[in-house]
Amino acid sequence: MPPKPLSDLHFARLFAQRVADHPDREFLVVGDRRSTWRQVEREAGALAAAMAARGLGPGDRLALVLPNWGEAVVAILAAARLGAVVVPLDPASSFHELRYLLRHGEVRAAVVAERWNGQELLEDFDELMPELPDLAFLVTVGPEELWHDDRILQYEDLVARGGGDAPVAELDPAAAPLALLYTSGTTGKPKGVVLSHAAVLGSAVA
Questions:
Q1: 177: DSSP letter
Q2: How far apart are CA 72 and CA 112, in angstroms?
Q3: What is the DSSP string of 108-166?
Q4: Which of 87, 98, 121, 205 shows a CA-CA span of 20 to 30 A to 65?
Q5: Residue 129 near residue 101, CB atoms below 8 Å
Q6: pLDDT digit string (tens) for 157-179?
Q7: How far is CA 188 from the centre of its chain?
Q8: What does the alpha-carbon distance between residue 98 and residue 95 come to, in Å, rounded to a whole number?
Q9: Phi/psi class of residue 13: alpha, beta or left (left: φ > 0; alpha: ψ in -120 to 50)?
Q10: CB 62 within 8 A of CB 56
Q11: 3-state secondary structure of 37
């Protein structure tokens, strides 16, 4: 099969094509949770609409401070719809590592686990947010009803109140960034590597 042209390698559009091909096929399995392609697409659309209503748009950085959960998959798809840039960060990162990466990445929003592996991440972010001038809002993932203000929102609430399906951003897949990945920084400060939609999807399609 000939390779797809770079112009076709828009993450959100390619996913939507697969949804149209087999909407009711199982796509995401995490523990007891089993979701079809169509269910994940709807959840991603609702999350994207909710984040767009709070100002997240093309080129904005969305940090994912999550383990390997289903919400991470949905958030990546939502970011791709908006033309936002995913910045995946290890939830086991220290307070100082998170502060450096979130500031350096000029992160505008973050999806964060309430707690992970005994670490109370929201307590860290309670201290971090005053030091992050670019961070407009935080989306928490977890079972608890927690403190809220206009900058701290729960994932389930946003999906439930997403207000519909966010349109897919028009962008050039060969140039538009999909992800900003940081090196481990074992011999110095972590360095950010920008990957376009085409760079991420080209190898996967091949």
A1: E
A2: 9
A3: EEEEEES-BTTB-HHHHHHHHGGG-TT--EEEEESSS----BTTEEEHHHHHHT--S-P
A4: 205
A5: no
A6: 999 876 667 889 999 999 999 99
A7: 26
A8: 5
A9: alpha
A10: yes
A11: helix
- Give which of 145, 192, 195, 203 is closest to 174, Cα–Cα: 195
Cα–Cα distance between 92 and 81 in angstroms, integer? 28
Q: Tell me the Cα Rg of the chain.
A: 17
Q: What amino acid is encoded at 54 in this protein?
A: R
Cβ contact 102:63 at 8 Å: yes
The tens digit of pLDDT for each residue in 56-92 reads 999 999 999 999 999 999 999 999 999 999 999 999 9
Token pair belonging to 131 = 């030091």
The answer to whether 66 and 75 have CB atoms below 8 angstroms apart is yes
Residue type at 117 in one-letter notation: N
